[in-house]
Amino acid sequence: MKKRIAILGSTGSIGTNTLDVLSAFDSGFEVVALSCESNFGLLARQARRFRPKCVCIGDGVRDLSLKRSLPSGVRIVSGCEGLREIASRGDVDILVLAISGMAALPPLVEAVRTGKRIALANKEALVSAGPLIVKLAGKNGAEIIPVDSEHSAIFQCIEGKRKFLSRIILTASGGPLLDISSKKFDSLARRDILKHPKWKMGEKITIDSATMMNKGLEIIEAQHLFDVTEDRIEVLIHPEAIIHSMVEFLDGAILAQLALPDMRLPIQYALTYPVRRGGRAAVTDLSKIGKLSFREPDIRKFPCLELARAAARAGGTCPAVLCAADEEAVSAYLDGRIKFSGIPKVVGRVIARHKNIKREGLSLGDILRAGEWAKEEARAICCH
Fold this sequence. Notes:
Strand order of the largest sheet: 4-3-2-1-5-6-7
CATH class of the largest domain: Alpha Beta
Oligomer: single chain
Strand content: 15-25%
Mean pLDDT: 94
Distance between the termini: 57 Å
Number of strands: 11
Helix content: 40-55%
Low-confidence stretches: none
Shape: globular
């Protein structure tokens, strides 16, 4: 039987790579739904190519030209309610969650409640509401398979051996600022900070890579995906980005997953798991790569790493506040309202003002309210 796919965020990097993976297979998959925020032209082209039953567009936007350019019979929904509707559809087997930020949290909850497989490419949702999501997944038989290259690597390395896991080693390319002095950060052009040396990604995640907040978020995400404590997760800079992460077992053995940087590989694995199929990823020739190097991250240069670790240890609503404050601070930087060095300062000040809620059974509402409070605080800080 065909696996029926919905892609939330189909016009972004993960979404377009997912459709590229699907186009390599003659059969076995059916695209049921697609979504985008505002890139209607690309969404329409995708719809004509893959013939979904439904598309979702940004809230409050009704583009008549989009309707005219879609195949007949395609339903248009919008906003958060539209995303939740797609996530809960009974004719969707796999939800590829590729929208950024905490906006992914409500559709993720819906997909988990309806027992789907979620190919998760969003960090913030699981970081903000990890205990809630994991509990719901266990109750409803949902599968969460990570699409991040690092978490996919860990997932592959520990398959069938999770009870022997001692330590997780998250690798990081170091981003565009690895070898640049922090004194020069604020004098760099935005285009230079958005020029990642290894990956082509959206603006938000590229800035998070530059501050290394993305690695901090990955620490918290790994806690929930693999049921480990923060102190058992190490971050190691690996500029070549060939080893996507490693795991150490109780006997001291370390397993790693290696490949050239290509998001199509973890995407395909999430869609076909537990089966491996031929795909479009390039062959990795280690003789041409020559060497693999490692170094420890500089936490004074990249304070977002320690902010994330502190949020991981605090738990409760603190990780949601971390995510939301970072989202607002990155937006403020991209809009020119704060300097690059202001991002960790804003996030740190918001966390310092937060009164953490750490009771058992935090609800989705608790988490979303904490996130909204954090965004308001961050906006106020950025205005002064």
